[in-house]
């Protein structure tokens, strides 16, 4: 049955399918075959709801039929076959209905899908359009903003302000009638004006450049000209040297000196400058010169790289030498000492000329490591002098400038810091090296501007110009006075050694016409000898006799009386008086210990020395003192009261006129000479 | 003069200074000393004798130039210090003397015969009984001056050859010396009893308790007994002594001071040895 139905159905299906293609194929000959069965159109006509009901009905019928068939079959009766058959046919019909309905459903489905698909496609198309439009909108918006943000280059140009523009620009550019109202045109006009101005300025700039080039070239030319002038001038200077000498105007020499002076160490430089200045301003008889080797001075200041190389080299050398042989400790120390006491290669010489044509030569050195200056002296006299024996020390370079200022003996280094340096290398005192290095007097340091405060070592003491200047005049005067006084003493000593006390005519009035006592001997003695004399103890105790002073012994005689006078000569003669100590040997030894009159005689000569100074500058003090000593010895001997126990006349008859022979509780003799009356009285 | 020169000048002066006279103040605390340059120095004994005396206490409190010539004699009344030099006599008030810039209260010159040479006044002696002052000087004359009126009268003219330097009396006894040797006289009988065996000339002698103290040309003070024995010789610093002074007026400063040919004045607290020295500066 089913195969039958299927067989039956198949042709239906084929027919329908055949109809459909046929329908399609035969669209072309639709007019030929108008009666084809189109189920598709049928679908549009039938109501789906009804089809659904029909379907339900059919299914129910089918189910009923099947159930009936079932019942019938189960009953199993014979007549039921027809009924079964009937029912079977009915169910076949129902099956066909179902198939139809199925087809319809399929077709409907298909149609529905197609429609949905179409609609969807449309929607998609619209959607795409929308997207496109949106994109375009966005794009346009961007473009608009870009355009709105656009900064034209013209806004970066600084234009002149509007008022100025209208003031300065010519009317064909500024076109005020248009531009005033229209900002766009205004800006355009302003830009035009700007352009024009810039063009003009650019031209100007080009012109200036060219002129600058020209001027530079001119400068070059002139420079060359000048540089070629220098050697010509030099040659002229050389040529003028002989003329300078002829005219006594040594400019060249001074110039050279200043050149050399640049290499001096600071204290010597200060000294040089100040001495030169003083010499030019106040003292024509002072001349300054620089001596020494400039190359060595330059070599002292080698650049540091070289010295480092030297160090490394010398280290290598040192190692080598130590391998071979160790230098002895003494030699090392000696070398260190030499190094410490090294002098700067340049030195400053000052020559002081005095009125009598004698010259004092001072050479100043600088000890570099000790920061101390020293001086060496030399005296040249106009006339060759024979030196009297006693005057040996007077002009000796060692002691000539001792105690120029009080207490300045030059035996100790004035820089307190040197003591520590000395301890390292075993030098006791600078005094040992004074003969070769010169004396480190304090006034020398002051002239070099070095000021060492006492007992306080400072790290650096630098040369100070004002210190040097303030001491220059005083020191030069003292130096001259010192030289003059020493020369005067020199002359006097020459005379004293011959037993003559030289008294100048101005001083004759201090003494009576007749002096009988005579100077017999005049010698120099040493400090130790002086200390040993019994009658000098007071003077030594009072601190008036030191080892920086000079000591002499004078012997005055009259008859059997001998007067020994020990003289202390202060280096500061003649502002400091010589001091006398007396010992009279006559009928016993009388000194100030046992005879008040001897004491009075001493005070006559030592204390009242101002009367004996003579004419300024008082260099005759010593000789006048000696003359007075002779006079008062006369008085003493003549006024000695006669000892009646001794037979014979007085050894010394009284020749001097005295008012009174003795006076006062100490029975003083009259030692004071009154001029012009010519008698002796007491003080 | 530069300071250095002034120091040297003063040092020389000090070396050659002689102190000729001394006098104690009425209160006994100060000692006035006159020297050969005409200066009078006032020393404070109380400061020098005190326990914490330093070097400065031994220097004069004040030192001023009193006369042009050496101050040979000093003596004190109860209010004034009288100083005598070359022919002039000056008086100073003790009350003002310690202050600087002291001026003399008055000054007098005794009348002298010769005007060429002005004789010095060697010695002053106060006569309290009739308030007069005796001056003895180099013109071999003794003048008496009335302290109230200031009138001089010439007293006596001893014409002895050898000079008498020192004189001291003590009731019955008188000791005098100078050119002649020191001699002790008994006054009632006016005979010399003892001649002291001292070689140098004696410049000053005084009685003290039962001793005679004297000093002179040598650098010693002699303690002598009336019998003529030399009890002690005390060495002093000056080479020759011109003046001895005993401070009786103040019991706590009772010292003997000796001055002479030196700028130092020795002070003896115990008369047996030198305690310390005051010095001119």
Let me know the CATH homologous superfamily of chain B. YVTN repeat-like/Quinoprotein amine dehydrogenase
The major beta sheet of chain A can be summarized as: 5 strands, antiparallel
Order of helices and strands of chain B: HEEEHEEEEHEEEEEEEEEEEEEEEEE
Helix content of chain A: 40-55%
Spatially, the strands of the biggest sheet of chain A line up as 5-6-7-8-9
Q: C-alpha Rg of chain A, in Å?
A: 71 Å
- Helices of chain B, by number, come to 3
Largest sheet strand order of chain B: 1-2-3-4
Please describe the biggest sheet of chain B, giving its number of strands, its sense, and whether it closes into a barrel.
4 strands, antiparallel
What's the rounded overall pLDDT mean of chain A? 78
The CATH architecture category of chain B equals 7 Propeller
The greatest interface between two protein chains, and residues involved on each side, is: A-B, 30 and 30 residues
pLDDT < 50 runs, ≥5 residues of chain A: 16-21, 304-319
Count of helical segments of chain A?
A: 21
Number of domains of chain B: 1
Keywords (chain A): Nucleus
Protein name (chain A): THO complex subunit 5 homolog isoform X1
GO cellular component, one term (chain A): THO complex part of transcription export complex
InterPro entries (chain A): THO_Thoc5
């Amino acid at each position: 049955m089913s195969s039958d139905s299927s067989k039956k159905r198949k042709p239906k299906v084929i027919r329908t399918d055949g109809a459909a293609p046929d329908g399609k194929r035969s669209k072309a000959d639709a007019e030929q075959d108008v009666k084809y069965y189109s189920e598709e159109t049928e679908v549009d006509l039938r109501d789906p709801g009804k089809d659904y009901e029909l379907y339900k009905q059919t299914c129910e019928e089918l189910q009923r039929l099947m159930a009936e068939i079932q019942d019938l079959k189960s009953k199993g009766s014979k007549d039921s076959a027809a009924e079964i058959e009937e029912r079977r046919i009915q169910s076949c019909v129902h099956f066909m209905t179902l198939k139809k309905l199925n087809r319809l459903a399929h077709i409907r489905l298909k149609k529905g899908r197609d429609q949905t698909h179409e609609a969807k496609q449309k929607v998609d198309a619209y959607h795409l359009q929308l997207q496109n439009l949106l994109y375009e909108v966005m794009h346009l918006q961007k473009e608009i903003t870009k355009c709105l943000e656009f900064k034209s280059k013209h806004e970066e140009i600084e234009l002149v302000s509007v008022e100025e523009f209208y003031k300065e620009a010519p009317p064909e550019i500024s076109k005020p009638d248009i531009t005033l109202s229209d900002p766009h045109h205004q800006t355009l006009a302003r830009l035009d004006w700007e352009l024009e101005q810039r063009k003009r300025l650019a031209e100007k700039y080009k012109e200036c450049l060219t002129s600058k080039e020209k001027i530079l070239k001119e400068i070059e030319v002139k420079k060359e000209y000048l540089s070629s002038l220098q050697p010509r001038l030099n040659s002229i200077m050389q040529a003028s040297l002989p003329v300078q000498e002829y005219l006594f105007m040594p400019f060249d020499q001074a110039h050279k000196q200043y050149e050399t002076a640049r290499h001096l160490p600071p204290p010597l430089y200060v000294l040089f400058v100040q001495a030169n200045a003083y010499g030019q301003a106040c003292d024509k008889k002072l001349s300054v010169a620089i001596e020494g080797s400039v190359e060595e001075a330059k070599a002292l200041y080698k650049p540091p790289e070289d010295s480092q190389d030297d160090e490394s080299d010398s280290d290598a050398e040192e190692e080598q030498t130590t391998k071979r042989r160790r230098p002895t400790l003494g030699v090392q120390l000696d070398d260190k000492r030499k190094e410490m006491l090294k002098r700067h290669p340049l030195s400053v010489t000052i020559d002081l000329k005095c009125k009598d044509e004698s010259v004092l030569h001072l050479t100043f050195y600088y000890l570099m490591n000790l920061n101390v200056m020293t001086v060496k002296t030399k005296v040249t006299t106009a006339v060759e002098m024979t030196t009297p024996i006693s005057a040996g020390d007077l002009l000796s370079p060692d002691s000539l400038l001792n105690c120029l200022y009080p207490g300045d003996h030059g035996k100790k280094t004035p820089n307190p810091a040197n003591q520590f340096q000395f301890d390292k290398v075993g030098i006791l005192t600078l005094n040992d090296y004074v003969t070769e290095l010169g004396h480190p007097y304090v006034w020398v340091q002051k002239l070099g501007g070095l000021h060492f405060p006492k007992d306080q070592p400072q790290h650096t003491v630098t040369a100070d110009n004002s210190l040097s200047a303030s001491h220059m005049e005083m020191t030069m005067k003292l130096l001259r006075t010192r030289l003059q006084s020493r020369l005067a003493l020199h002359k006097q000593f020459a005379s004293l050694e011959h037993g003559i006390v030289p008294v100048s005519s101005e001083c004759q009035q201090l003494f009576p016409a007749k002096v009988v006592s005579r100077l017999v001997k005049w010698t120099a003695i040493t400090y130790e000898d002086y200390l040993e004399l019994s009658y000098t103890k007071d003077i030594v105790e009072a601190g008036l006799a030191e080892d920086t002073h000079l000591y002499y012994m004078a012997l005055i005689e009259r008859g059997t009386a001998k007067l020994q006078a020990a003289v202390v000569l202060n280096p500061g003669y003649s502002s400091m008086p010589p001091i006398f100590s007396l010992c009279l040997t006559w009928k016993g030894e009388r000194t100030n210990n046992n005879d008040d009159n001897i004491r009075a005689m001493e005070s006559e000569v030592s204390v009242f020395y101002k009367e004996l100074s003579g004419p300024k500058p008082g260099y005759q003090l010593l000789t006048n003192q000696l003359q007075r000593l002779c006079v008062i010895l006369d008085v003493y001997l003549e006024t000695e009261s006669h000892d009646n126990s001794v037979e014979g006349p007085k050894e010394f008859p009284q020749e001097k006129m005295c008012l009174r022979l003795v006076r006062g509780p100490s029975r003083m003799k009259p030692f004071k000479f009154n001029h012009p009356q010519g008698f002796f009285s007491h003080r | 003069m530069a300071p250095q020169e002034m120091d040297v000048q003063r040092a020389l002066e000090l070396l050659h200074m002689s102190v000729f006279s001394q006098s104690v103040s009425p209160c006994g605390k100060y000692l006035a000393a006159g020297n050969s340059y005409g200066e009078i120095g006032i020393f404070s004994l109380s400061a020098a004798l005190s326990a914490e005396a330093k070097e400065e206490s031994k220097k004069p409190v004040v030192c001023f130039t009193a006369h042009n010539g050496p101050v040979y004699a000093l003596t004190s009344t109860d209010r004034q210090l009288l100083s005598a030099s070359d022919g002039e006599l000056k008086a100073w008030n003790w009350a003002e003397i310690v202050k600087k810039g002291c001026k003399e209260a008055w000054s007098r010159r005794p009348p002298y015969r010769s005007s060429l040479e002005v004789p010095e006044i060697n010695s002053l002696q106060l006569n309290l009984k009739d308030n007069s002052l005796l001056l003895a000087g180099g013109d071999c004359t003794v003048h008496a001056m009335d302290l109230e009126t200031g009138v001089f009268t010439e007293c006596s003219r001893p014409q002895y050859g050898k000079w008498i330097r020192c004189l001291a009396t003590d009731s019955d006894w008188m000791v005098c010396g100078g050119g002649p040797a020191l001699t002790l006289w008994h006054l009632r009988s006016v005979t010399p009893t003892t001649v002291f065996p001292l070689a140098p000339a004696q410049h000053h002698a005084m009685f003290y308790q039962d001793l005679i103290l004297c000093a002179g040309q040598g650098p010693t003070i002699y303690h002598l007994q009336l019998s003529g024995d030399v009890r002690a010789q005390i060495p002093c610093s000056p080479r020759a002594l011109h003046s001895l002074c005993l401070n009786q007026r103040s019991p706590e400063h009772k010292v003997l001071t000796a001055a002479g040919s030196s700028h130092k004045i020795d002070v003896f607290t115990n008369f047996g040895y030198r305690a310390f020295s005051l010095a001119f500066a």
